[in-house]
Amino acid sequence: MTHVAVVTIAHGRHEHLAAQHRSLARATHRPDHYLAVAMDDPGIVVADDDGLVREVVGIGRGPGGRLPLAAARNLGVRTAIDAGADVVVLLDVDCLAGAGLVASYADVVTARPGRIWSGPVTYLPPPPPGGYPDDPADLAGWDDPHPARPSPAPGELLESDDPDLFWSLSFAVDPATWGRLGGFCEDYAGYGGEDTDLGRTAVASGIGLGWVGGARAYHQHHPVSSPPVEHLDDILRNGRLFHERWGAWPMTGWLEEFERRGLVRREGGHWIRETPTRTTEETTP
């Protein structure tokens, strides 16, 4: 019998985590192991929802006080595999699982291992007064997958070797493939770049990507800034690391918008933070 683990990482987002837990507990196929990696967040605790227990492991902050997104995902996968998982699903804490997500990932990873399989993700509007439905079957009425990624219909599979299409919001893998991949590069810390790096690493290692239409997820609404100015320093740091590893900068859409706002500039093939011009009043003693 296939042992399926679902891993999520979180810092805050406690209500979103609880809603994800409910969606997994009410799915057509529950995970055998549900694991949350708490990043510098002692408020995330072991919980039980309708018999589905959420285990919790903790990890501290990374260099410079940054959240260790890459290292946290690696810890979660390693813990799940050590506990006997045959299929590991990584699901962003903001994502609700569609009714067939766990079952679809279990089926495709078991039948066609050796790839990283992802499912379509719908970005939900703000919740209605009563909140999003607790029954994941009712989420199908909200289905509207993000247009920037493949979105096969339920029952369909797509394969691709385009590394830039990979997202870490929702994907699944078998232990042998994860071992070949080596996990996320833990030199990344803070926001941005680590998932695009994983896609490049996979394709460079001969590991293909794929999309499974039945593994649908629904990203809960929360306020965001576009571009994410609060993550500018992380994006520059991680972008430079990505360039060192792959010879190109990721997240160029955001960087170009930062440039339009006068926050960064291009210099010598790199992006650097723009130093604000000091006024006469500021420089006068």
UniProtKB/TrEMBL annotation:
**What does the record give as its pathway?**
Cell wall biogenesis; cell wall polysaccharide biosynthesis
UniProt xrefs under InterPro entries? Nucleotide-diphossugar_trans (IPR029044)
Map out region (Disordered) in residue numbers: 120-156
Enumerate the UniProt keywords alphabetically. Glycosyltransferase, Transferase
Indicate whether Glycosyltransferase appears among the record's keywords.
yes
Q: Which PANTHER family match?
A: GALACTOFURANOSYLTRANSFERASE GLFT2, RHAMNOSYLTRANSFERASE WBBL
Q: Which family does it belong to?
A: Belongs to the glycosyltransferase 2 family.
Output this protein's name.
Glycosyltransferase, GT2 family
Species for this entry: Nocardioides pini
